[in-house]
């Protein structure tokens, strides 16, 4: 670990208050985060995030689009980011933007606008490659390049990460060690569902702190699911938000708040607000997932966001840090098993969901 990494790691593990330390953006932009993170009236705080990528970056069409050819597509990222900012403004909430480093390098002004509007900046890798297709050294290089592009554009420190296509799975848990070493405070890449491209259905459904085999720790904030029978059903973002009936989504939100007593974690992409985007060729499944319901996204998001208490992901992490960590540390962390051949066969969870729930709703 070099000295830069060491500095980031010690900051990351010991100093949440400094998590959003910044160099150019006015301090008050982020002080509000801290005040609201405390949960002034004790109510649940929800989280909203945007994976900042363009329509031709998505995994659904990656097999037909060479990354070297990305620059040949007509960019719609500025207009769609504006739509995103508009819907967030109308809903009176600020979000976390998980930004593709490739975009940050080409659109630094756009990234600065996000920071100045008071949104949290986080990392969504550089080239949008699923982590299980990378060697650890390739992932680290991609991660650092992406983070540096965002930080150099804005002067804001990046502490959150979401893998492309939620691709931290049993095959790529090693990535959590690299994130912690690089000073990331939290990850939002493990989707506790069954899916053909990603998912760890046995993973906890709520925000939790993971103790890694090396002894490092990192917070994990999964996207929302609702438990029906033995299944975790996702409802709070992407295609699930567009494809599932809205009455189901409303019910799932109510159940998460009232029965599970947990925050809702919503995610979406700027291209999901753009029904007129150029159509790409791909399998019927890819086209179904990518194009269905695009015209519904804006209204659905506005309804959900304007009725909740949605804030950036870092607020949720701070809330967990102050409310859950003391409880968890007094009993047990969520401990990952030692990786065998780089792969953890099972995720053992000695800290139960009940315990995490107690901490969160305390
Ligand atoms: Zn993505």
What is the secondary structure topology, with strand pairs?
Blueprint: H1 3-14, H2 28-37, E1 46-52, H3 77-90, E2 96-99, H4 101-106, H5 108-116, E3 120-123, H6 136-154, E4 160-161, H7 174-181, E5 186-187, E6 208-211, E7 217-220, E8 225-228, E9 231-234, H8 238-243, H9 246-258, E10 265-268, H10 284-291, H11 297-307, E11 310-311, H12 313-323, H13 325-331, E12 334-335, H14 353-361
Parallel strand pairs: 1-2, 1-10, 1-11, 2-3, 4-5, 5-7, 6-12
Antiparallel strand pairs: 6-7, 8-9
The structure holds zinc ion.
Which properties best describe this structure?
single chain, 362 residues, alpha/beta, TIM Barrel, five-stranded parallel sheet, five-stranded mixed sheet, 14 helices, 12 strands, 40% helix, globular, disordered C terminus, binds zinc ion
Write a compact overview of the structure shown.
The chain is α/β, with parallel strands linked by helices. It is built from 14 helices and twelve strands.
How would you portray this structure in words?
Strands 1, 2, 3, 10 and 11 form a 5-stranded parallel β-sheet that branches. The protein has one domain: TIM Barrel. The N terminus and C terminus are likely disordered. By secondary structure, the protein is of the alpha/beta class. The N and C termini lie far apart (38 Å). It contains 14 helices and 12 strands. 40% of the residues lie in helices and 12% in strands. The site of zinc ion has 5 residues, from loops.
């Amino acid at each position: 670990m070099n000295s830069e990494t060491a500095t980031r790691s010690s900051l990351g593990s010991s100093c949440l208050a400094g998590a959003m330390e910044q160099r150019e953006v006015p301090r008050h932009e982020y002080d509000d985060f801290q005040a609201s993170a405390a949960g002034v009236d004790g109510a649940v705080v929800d989280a909203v995030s945007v994976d900042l990528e363009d329509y031709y970056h998505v995994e659904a069409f990656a097999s037909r689009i060479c990354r070297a050819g990305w620059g040949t597509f007509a960019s719609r990222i500025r207009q769609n980011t504006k739509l995103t900012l508009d819907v967030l403004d109308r809903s009176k909430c600020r979000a976390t933007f998980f930004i593709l480093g490739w975009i940050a390098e080409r659109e630094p002004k756009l990234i600065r606008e996000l920071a100045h509007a008071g949104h949290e900046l986080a990392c969504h890798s550089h080239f949008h490659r699923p982590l299980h297709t990378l060697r650890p050294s390739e992932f680290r290089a991609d991660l650092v390049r992406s983070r540096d592009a965002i930080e150099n554009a804005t002067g804001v420190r990046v502490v959150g990460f979401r893998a492309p296509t939620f691709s931290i799975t049993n095959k790529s848990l090693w990535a959590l060690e690299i994130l912690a070493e690089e000073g990331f405070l939290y990850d939002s890449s493990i989707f506790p569902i069954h899916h053909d491209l990603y998912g760890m259905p046995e993973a906890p459904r709520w925000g939790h702190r993971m103790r890694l085999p090396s002894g490092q720790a990192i917070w994990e904030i999964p996207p929302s699911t609702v438990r029906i029978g033995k299944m975790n059903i996702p409802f709070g973002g992407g295609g699930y938000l567009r494809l599932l009936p809205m009455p189901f989504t409303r019910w799932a939100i109510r159940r998460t708040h009232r029965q599970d007593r947990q925050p809702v974690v919503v995610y979406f992409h700027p291209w999901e607000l753009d029904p007129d985007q150029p159509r790409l060729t791909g399998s019927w499944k890819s086209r179904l997932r990518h194009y269905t319901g695009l015209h519904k996204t804006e209204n659905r998001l506005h309804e959900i966001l304007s009725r909740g208490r949605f804030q950036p992901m870092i607020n949720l992490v701070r809330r967990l840090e102050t409310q859950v960590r003391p409880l968890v540390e007094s009993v047990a962390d969520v401990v990952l098993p030692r990786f065998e051949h780089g792969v953890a066969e099972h995720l053992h969870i000695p800290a139960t969901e009940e315990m995490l729930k107690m901490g969160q709703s305390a």
